[in-house]
Amino acid sequence: MCSSTITVCTSNIILRGSGSSTILKAAPPLKGPIIAISDGKNITIANMTLDGNKAEISVENPWTPVFLLKNVRNATISDIRIINASGSGLYMTYPGSPSPKAVVRGIEVINTTGVAVVVDGNAQDILIEDVKIIGGEARGLLVNTAGGIMRNIVLRRIYVYNTGGKIEEWYGSGTGIQFDGTYGGRGEDIIIQDAIVEKSGSFGIWIIGEAWRNVRLINCTVKNNRDADAFGLAGVKNVFLINCTSIGSHIDGFAFGSVGTPPIDKIIIYGCKAIESGLKTGGKGFMLYRVMNSLIVDSEALETGGAGFFCRGCINNTFIGIKSQRAGLHEGSEGGITFLSDMEPNQTGSINNTVMYSIFSDSQCGISLDIYPSVAHSYNNKFHHNNFIGNMMPVCTGSSASNVWDNGYPSGGNYWSNYNALDVRSGPNQDVSGSDGIGDHPYTINSANRDRYPLVKPVDPQAIAKAIADLKILPREYFMVHLGNFAGKAIMYRKAVDGKIVEVLVDYRSVMEYERTNYCGLDNLPPAYSIEEQVKQWRAGYSKNRMYYSLDGCWYWVYFRATYNP
Q1: Residue 179: DSSP 8-state
Q2: Do 413 and 552 have their domain in common?
Q3: Which pLDDT score, from 0 to 100, does residue 108 have?
């Protein structure tokens, strides 16, 4: 009885078909992969269809794939179609020494009973792009540390549709894209870019476990996941989400942290949207559990069953330019933003957070504080230059804990649409004749909380945009997500220098340094440098690139590591 149709245990192999007309079809009683490649290097496989033919592979092991790569170095897999696998589709496993450099491009996996695509172990320098995963009874794409060391894993333009058709064997088994770090090891420098997950049976994108660090999600979208959260992250360190969108999530649009896991420190959420989250379940737009020292900027929650932004045990975070509209459609007391204690044995409230230049509108509660019973309360949070518009109750609070509701005089407090006091006086005590844009009387919330300097007009959009731009946050991260086709790559250039061809390898996977120029404005570029200067840079081990930083409107010199081969 054959264990595989094609088995390769050597190097320098090219197996190339002629497109969809080249079909390798499993014939029962096949009990293993159609193609299995082990311990080789310089492997290229392209242009063919692998038909699992529903051979009963799953009888012996549901993980058995149609296509297996084990400890393969420098592999290129392209234009492969995998159908009808009675197990996994493509399985790339690296249980041995770190195996760098694999490119998987342009594959399609349809209707597997196991996980469509799996990468585990000591995988490093892996690029997976332009992949479609359609249907299937389990997860779409799984990356698992499995006790190994993973580094530089890049997923780009991944489309996952309708995974998890079978009733879940365990929580999360119908997830679209999962990074699992619960089995030990370490995974770092992860990029997921331009991924779309639709109608997954569980999470859309799920990253779990303390193994993961330096994770970037860029321009990713999850639509109508049938269970769990659209984006779920727990135990992860140093996370950056930019321009990600959740639409119609069953529970939360974005969920960070969970009960019993370590706090999440230093995440950045920038330009993300949660639309119609948890309308039937009370799910939140953004759920932050024990998140600390983080930035949530220019992000929106629109029509949520629970809170737009829901914070339990959150400490020292800054929210700037966020919007929540029509929050609490299922859980009415949860406001546009809600602060509560965590649910750990020794409870801690949400403290020392700042919310500014934001808009909370058309909800039962604009802001909710300590609305559920707890021994710990939320205090010393600061709210200023926010617009509270059209809420039944601008602030709902279940405790007498004290928070700060203005930024002092003359900066001011917040705009409250139900505040109608006159503005004919000015000064810190509002006892000097003349208006100053601040109401003449404080806005009282309860005996322990009041806005001393309520604004008589809404904070205008230009002021909100300026507050976001003035952050000048993280140019390093900004540049990493604006590299376009260079993102996640090391690129070899060949140049003619002094009559001969030289080579330089520029590594765009991380920024060495950056410096701001005096050239500001998109059309005001700094001058390009000469080829002699460029060669001088290469010999010194770096490549200097000019990049525009839209958050402050100026050009920067950005340095990437270079390896020069004269």
Answers
A1: E
A2: no
A3: 94
pLDDT tens track for 213-234: 989 898 899 999 999 999 999 9
Q: Which residues contact 155 (CB under 8 A, 6 or more apart)?
A: 128, 129, 141, 177, 191, 192, 193, 195
Query: Which residue shows structure tokens 């459609």?
Result: 329
DSSP string, 106-158: S-EEES-SS-SEEEEEEEEEEEEEEEEEE--SS-SEEEE-TTSEEEEEEEEEE
421-449 per-residue burial string, b: 16 or more CB within 10 A, e: under 16: eebebbeeebeeeeebebbbebbebeeeb
Cross-strand partners of 247: 223, 275
Domain's final residue, options 437, 471, 505: 471
User: How many angstroms from the chain centroid is the CA of residue 2?
Assistant: 43
CATH assignment at residue 87: 2.160.20.10
**pTM for this prediction:** 0.83
Which stretches does DSSP call E strand in 337-401? 337-340, 354-356, 359-361, 365-369, 382-384, 387-389, 393-397
Q: How many CA atoms lie within 13 A of 177 on its CB side?
A: 29
* 157 CB neighbour count, 10 Å cutoff: 16
Task: Tell me the C-alpha distance between 404 and 200, whole Å.
Answer: 42
Half-sphere exposure of 136 (CA within 13 A, CB side): 36
Q: Cis link prior to 410 (omega < 30° from 0)?
A: yes
| Domain endpoint, select from 228, 252, 272 | 228
* Extended beta strands in 162-209, E state: 177-180, 186-193, 196-198, 205-208
- Are 371 and 378 in contact, with CB atoms under 8 Å apart? no
Q: CA 4, CA 66: separation in Å to the nearest integer?
A: 9
Q: What DSSP string describes 476-520?
A: HHHHHTT-GGGTT-EEEEEEEETTEEEEEEEETTS--EEEEEEEE
- Give yes or no: residues 322 and 447 share one domain: yes
pLDDT band at 48 (very low <50, low <70, confident <90, very high): confident
Overall domain count for the chain: 3
Q: How many Cβ atoms from other residues are within 10 Å of residue 196's Cβ?
A: 18
Q: Which tokens hold the place of 151?
A: 């580094």
Pairing of strands 41-51, 245-247: unpaired
Two structure tokens written together for 18:
């002629």
Any bridge partners for residue 339, and if so which? 311, 369
Q: What is the mean pLDDT of residues 47-65?
A: 59
In a domain, 163, yes or no: yes
Give the count of beta carbons closer than 10 Å to the beta carbon of residue 551.
Answer: 16
Structure tokens at 406: 């203005």
3-state DSSP call for residue 538? Answer: helix
Rounded CA-CA distance 391/386 in Å is 13
In a domain, 17, yes or no: no
Reported as half-sphere exposure (CB side, CA atoms, 13 A), residue 127 has a value of 18
Polymer length of the chain: 566
Domain containing residue 553: 488-565
